[in-house]
Structures are given as C-alpha cells and as structure tokens.
C-alpha cells in the first residue's frame, strides 16, 4: 500500500525533515507545501536540503514520485473578476512548477479555484485560459487538479468540470487529477461503491489521468458540499470504505495521502497508517 500524509517543511532541516517525519509514521509517500500555503514568501530551493532528502528517500526505497507537492491556496485559476488575482495565479503557479521540478518531485496538486461573483462556466473557461498561460512546464512535472467539494463558488466538484478543463489544455501531457475522498463524498459521489466511482471517473476523465488520492473521512453527510475532513472512521464515510479505497487494486500504484485533522496537538498519521496497513480500526488510537 502506497500510503503517507501531509508533513511539515520547516527549518532547519526543511525537505530532509519532511522525509524524516514521513518515515516516523512508517509512510512510503508524503505531501508538503514548499512554503506557507497562504502567502507567496518562499525560500530558495538551494537552502532546502534537497539532496539530503532525496538520498534519505532512496535509502528507504521511496521513489521521488511518492513526494507530492501541493500548490498554495492563494492560487485561484478560476477567478475572472480580479485581474490582479489572475495575474498572481499564473505567475506564482509558474514558480511552484519550477520549484517542484528543482525538488525532483513529479506531481503538483492544484485546487482548480472559485469563480467568486461570476458563474460556473466562466470559472471553468477562466481556469483553462489561466492554465494555458503557464508555458514553461518541465517534462517531468504533472499538474494534478483536485476534485473539490462544491463549497461556495468552487469549480471542480463534478468530474465533468475537470474533464472540460483537461480537454481545453494545450499541454495535456502535463495535466492530471488528484481525487479527494472527503471532497467527492461531500460533492455527492457514493464513495462506499468506490468501483462505481472509478468507473464513472474512467468514463468521464480516464483512469490514466488519476495520479494522487487524498484519503480523508468527512464530517458531513453525502452531498453536503461543505468540505470538513474527519479522521479515519470518525466521519460519514467510515473506516471500512476508506480501507477499500486504499486497498483497491485498480489504484494500487497511486499514492494515497492522509489530510486528516490533528488530535489535540498531535498528528494521527502513524496510527492511521498502521490501521490501514493492518485493516484494523481501533478508535482508541484516535483519542487525545
């Protein structure tokens, strides 16, 4: 099972520290931001102990394809209302793509954005235009648009939205999808029948475009369109279903990343990963 979690990236060890954190959870995959997700301040990649991180991953048999980079939330490709936001989206996404390449990672997860006061179709067309404005994409980088919950004016909460965006991109070889179980549940997909979800995904988008899975329970009822993550087995999806997602042979080669809430001041990832590997739900491990 290729399973990991969101990890921190902070001084003094930076990326090397991120890998060490993942290893402490017995993970063989990880996801991180290259800086704060709410702003554009970034350290130089040369300061981030990339070589040490790569060597540590290699020593532990973890390929660089299992290090996922998440783009910051402030990038909103679907915003047609504020030109300055659109300009920032293109400029900063270009920088994040190049940083992903310099780190040696392959997949950059990106929220497709929100149309704010416009409308859904305008948001989708704007996202296509903005993504096509990013020209310099190294051969080894793939931008993975994330499935969204449909909160507010988000686009991307239906597979058809993402299919439209992908079909409009001028460099399709550099694009794919990250599927979030909490988000699709909140958007109205029946995760309990995950094979049927995969069938629909394959029909609308194509399973070959699926590169990352965010494995999260949800605090909301199916179709609520709210996006509130829960710990495994503590939400409306349930541990049994999420185990079936994680162990489904159709997605066995795809990294699964936990973004579940911390419990108190402690990350639950070591315990949740162990439960998934052993197919053994123990709620006592998820208490403060």
Question: Which features does this protein show?
Answer:
288 residues, alpha/beta, eight-stranded parallel barrel, two-stranded antiparallel ribbon, 35% helix, 14% strand
Radius of gyration: 18 Å
Average pLDDT rating? 96
In helices, the fraction of residues equals 25-40%
Strand neighbour order, sheet with most strands: 1-2-3-4-5-6-7-10
Number of H- or I-type helical stretches: 9
Strand content: 5-15%
Largest sheet: 8 strands, parallel, barrel
Multimerization status: single chain
Class computed from helices, strands and strand pairing:
alpha/beta
Distance between the termini: 27 Å
Low-confidence stretches: none
Number of strands: 10
Shape: globular
Task: Give, in order, the helices and strands.
Answer: EHEHEHEHEHEHHEEEHEH
Outline:
By secondary structure, the protein is of the alpha/beta class. The protein is 35% helix and 14% strand.
């Amino acid at each position: 099972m290729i399973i990991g979690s969101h990890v921190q990236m902070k001084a003094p060890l930076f990326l090397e520290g991120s890998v060490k954190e993942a290893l402490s959870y017995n993970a063989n995959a990880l996801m991180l931001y290259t800086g704060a997700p709410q702003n554009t301040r970034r350290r130089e990649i040369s300061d981030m102990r990339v070589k040490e991180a790569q060597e540590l991953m290699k020593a532990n048999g973890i390929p660089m394809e299992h290090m996922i980079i998440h783009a910051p939330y402030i990038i909103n490709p679907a915003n047609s209302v504020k030109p300055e936001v659109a300009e920032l989206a293109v400029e900063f996404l270009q920088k994040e793509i190049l940083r992903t390449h310099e780190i040696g990672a392959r997949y950059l997860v990106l929220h497709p954005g929100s149309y704010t006061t416009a409308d859904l179709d305008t948001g989708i067309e704007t996202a296509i235009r903005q993504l096509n404005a990013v020209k310099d994409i190294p051969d080894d980088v793939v931008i993975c648009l994330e499935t969204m919950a449909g909160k507010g004016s988000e686009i991307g909460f239906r597979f058809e939205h993402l299919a439209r965006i992908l079909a409009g991109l001028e460099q399709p070889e550099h694009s794919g999808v990250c599927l979030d179980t909490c988000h699709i549940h909140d958007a109205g997909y029946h995760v309990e029948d995950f094979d049927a979800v995969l069938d629909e995904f394959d029909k609308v988008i194509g399973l070959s475009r699926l590169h990352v899975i965010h494995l999260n329970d949800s605090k909301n009822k199916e179709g609520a369109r709210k996006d509130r993550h829960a710990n495994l087995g503590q939400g409306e999806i349930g541990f049994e279903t999420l185990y079936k997602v994680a162990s489904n042979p159709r997605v066995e080669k795809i990294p699964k990343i936990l973004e579940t809430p911390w419990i108190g001041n402690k990350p639950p990832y070591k315990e949740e990963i162990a439960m998934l590997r052993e197919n053994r739900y123990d709620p006592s491990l998820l208490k403060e």
